[in-house]
Amino acid sequence: MMALLLAGVLVFFPAVRNTHPAADRLLKIVVIDPGHGGRESGAIGPGGTAEKGVTLALAQQIREVLADRYRTVLTRSDDYWMDVTARAATANHHRADLFISLHAGGGFEANLDGISVSIFGGVAGEPGATDSSEHLKTGLVPWELGYLRHVPENRRLASVLRRSLSKQFTSRPVSLVEAPLAVLAGADMPAALIEIGYLTHPARELYLKEADRIADFARAIAGGIDAFFSK
Ligand SMILES: [Zn+2]
Q: How far is the CA of 187 from the centre of ligand 1 (A)?
């Protein structure tokens, strides 16, 4: 009995000590950013649904779907306010392999709606927009232009996310956007912002309140993340 116990101990502890940190390092790190939070509700639907709650529910679902194959970190795990620059900074701090910001925006007109995948870009007149090679060559890239080295991967990311979302939501067009979005500006890794629809659209608000729909989005976004890393 003692020998068996001893053998058990000898086998068990080295296994835990040696494999856990190594396994952890092998996992890609995905930082998911639920848009808005706390005093900043984001868009509010006609029925009172706040964007900050929808994005948090979606982020938690994505984390669940990804749990067995990535190390997933949420920029916020509850309903509190967070500065926009702190979101990408969290991803940089964790040396993330991927940063995804989630939104369910709003428009001034109730009939506006749509799914979109955005990446940082398109700053007309800024040196980075026309002369990225010089910035990359000198190695002195200002932090807010750190995205420049990720442009090709960002485009590939946007395209795989769009494909995965289009496969799940066949009746809804998914648009690709390149825009100088503050939340993505400081991200030093491939990064995208996903809008899953406009909460201010009355029918869309009802749709996004259904747990099954959030689960559909979580699966589709997780599918896009898998496709991105399976290259
Ligand atoms: Zn938003």
A: 18
